[in-house]
Amino acid sequence: MLASLLLTFALPAVAPQETPRDPVGRVVVYRFDTVETMDGETLSNVTMLVRNGVIERMGQAVVIPDHAEVHDYRGSGKVAMPPFALSHANFLVSDRRGDGRNTRYTAADSIWLNEDWSEDLLEEGVLIVGVDPPGGGLPGRTSVLMVDDQTGAPNALVSDLHLKVMVSTSSSAKSLVRDGFKAADKAIADEDKARAEWKKAREEWEAKQKEAAEAKQKASEGKDGVDGKEVKKGTEVKGGKGGTAAQDEGGDNQEDKGPPEEFEVPKMDSDVEPLVEWVRQERVGQVWLSSPSDWLHWQDLLRERELQYEIVLRHGSTQNLFEVASSIAATDLRVDVPARLSFLPYTRVRANLPAELVAQGVSKLILSPSSDSLTGLRDYRLSVSQVVAEGLDRKVALRGMTVEPALSMGQEEIIGALKIGAPATFVIWNGDPLDPMSEVDIVLSEGKVVYDREKAEAEDQS
Amino acid sequence: MKTQRKIWMSLFCALGLQSVTFAQEPPEVVETPPSPPEEIVEEVQEPVEEVAGEVVEEVIEEEQIDSELFIDPDSPYLYIHGADIHTVTNGVIQKGDILCKDGRVMKLGESLRKPHGARQIDASGMQIYPGLIAVDSSGIVSGRGLSIRDSYDPYALNIDLGLSGGLTTVQSGGAVAKLKHGTLDGILLGEANWVNMNYSTTSPSGRRKLREDFSKVRDFLREEKRWILDKALGEDVSEKAPEPKDVNKEYLSLLKGEAVAHFSANSLKDLLATCDLLEEYPMQSVIMGGREAWACAGRLGRVGAQLVITPRAKSWADDSLNRPSGWSIENARILWDHGVSFSILPGERFISTGGIAGRDLLTLPMEAAFAIRGGLPQDVALRSITLDAAKLLGVDHRLGSIEVGKDADFILCDGDLFHYRTFVQWAVVDGAVAYDKMNAPYFAHIRPRAAESLEEVFEEIQDTVVGEEIIEEVVAEEAASIDDPEEE
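YS: structure for the whole thing
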């Protein structure tokens, strides 16, 4: 039994090497007891046919081709589901920076990865990580990394994603954000002014060009007519009387092309540019809050302004964020919250903020580890299971670990629901993924095995 | 979360009636001294059984039920009914109603009509006072001046605790701010334009310098006045008004009456020195401390000083001095006798959850109660922590008393404000409930309110069942739960 099990494990790792088949048209079939599709369904007794890294067939009645490589995990209790996307893996960031407007930085500038970083993440079933720029206030823009054991090097999918904004209940933090908005508004106003000036200049110039062309045409018509020379002379005199403008016109005709055809956008301060993009709704912000009053102060900063943003809630073991849960839910924003059972302030009454948010109507919920560290990541599933045990819907929780953060990072192509036509990117767990004792067996990315626990453990031992 | 609380509340309901019995006992702490008849604080209360009976009776009237059911949580109206209203300026209205609209008191009196959909607090048996005002505080709100708004946390524990102690307004960092829950709107009332004066007896040279500066300011003001007069009379004077060069701008604003001088004086020597200065340079002033003020109350009254005293602050008489010295429990009473306006503050101007309880802003009425023990009339004690405090901060046009047109800032207490057993049950700020003892973490479990207000009972019924029959059933259950403790 054990031998046969080992054999099955060994197969995917060994088989491709022994028979170097052309991967094109390669068909691999996986058979599971349970597949968490993240499409709102948990399928049982599933046969999944993967061709060229894409799920071609999935269901109970799938015909297995003769040449297919079959991995039959039925009866082993293994579960397949999309990999986790970690929204804030800031333990990968090494720099330290104070509070202030540092929007010119991206998180990718500051990451520092040790040798085992990818294995550490893959063995917890994480395939994509978001990293934040260090520091407070307006620290910069977030980045997204692909965890890939094969290359070992950081594979930045997106280096410049959300604009991180830390809002807190203090006048200094508020004025930082307020001044940021002011600077952005000023930059926009300056640009609009420059554009208006350019437009005016260009129109004037074009009008003059037209006038000159007409005059020229008239002159040429005059030539054809009776008193060509006189007319021409007339225009010349007229031009002379017109003074500098007319002289310019003359100059334009010969050398100067006038104002540029396309408006040249004046160069902005690199610290202001991301804010301008945000204000123009060309960029998504990420607003970090840690107390309910922060939410009020954020509303106060926002006022009538319409921005695209997500909310990241970060709080300690006690919180009273439930006070604003309904107000947050009413905005229909994506909310990132630590999977943690906390206490209501000054009581030992346990509060389940993720469940409370969902109950109030938050539909896009991201669950992140309660502590931003590798240890926190190892406790991730334990804390999520506690939150689920105390009232959060299991499917919402699983979505909040996989599909929702991937959507937030714009990587829904990589981590999405498991369905026909989707890439075969999934994790095979040796049990219920929310059981803290379960482990990752295999991580597949587009049909390729990027992590295999047996292999990794064997390597570690050797 | 709400449902959790409701369950707790209903649990408390079964046990809670006894508590009201405590709260309803007329607390006879001090003898009320003779004062105008309408200002006598009457403590006539009905026995609890009758209150409970009332609830049941009202429930049975179906028409009333209907009107109770329609409560619009966003209604601009707040209707508080059935409480003794201590208006501060116009005596006590027994079993009166208050109708507030948009955060202001709209009507005040007996048997007011309740507008349709108005939010409602059934305050039968409660005592309503204006929200208390702390003329100085630290740690309740942070920041200075206008920046207070940007660092205001309306969910902070200290705000809740302040409200639980009856405070609705505090001065901090030179600004007057309201204590509110869950909103940043309208928290700043204005700036307390105080000029801190160092006029202590320990520095004679500093005092001389200060007097010289004041003399310069006075000379300038005379010059300016002469110029204005001359100009008005058409005399030959310069076009430009004299400019305040080499003149202390703060003192100028003081002598012009634009700011309030803020002294600190406890000993008789300091107090008399301050009086001398105030006689020479009349200005608005606040003297913090005033421990030996009883010994020069007449003098203080004549210079029009306002004091902020701490009745429980003690210091023994110094027998080596050939003059009265030391503290007196009668300090406040003597000051009042001499017409000196004063406010009361406890020894610590913050809210403390550690140390020895009862000497911080959590128990401001207790400090005033100590002055009552020394002979201060109860209504004066109330005025000292409401209207007189508001006057001191220059916000008495909005706060400090319950009057039509003023801000709807009240505290609803389950007994006399100056009784040690009394709790603030609700604090209303700007016409909205900012604090409800049953929902606050600190005191909810201590003598919880007997029955929930009708409003809450019906809210629950609305949530759970529909149909008159079932309503009756629930009402019967509710009545049974009210009866239960009596049988015990």
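YS: worth flagging: The first strand of chain A starts at residue 27 and ends at 36.
IM: good catch. Also Residues 1-82+417-462 of chain A form a domain with the Urease, subunit C; domain 1 fold (CATH 2.30.40.10).
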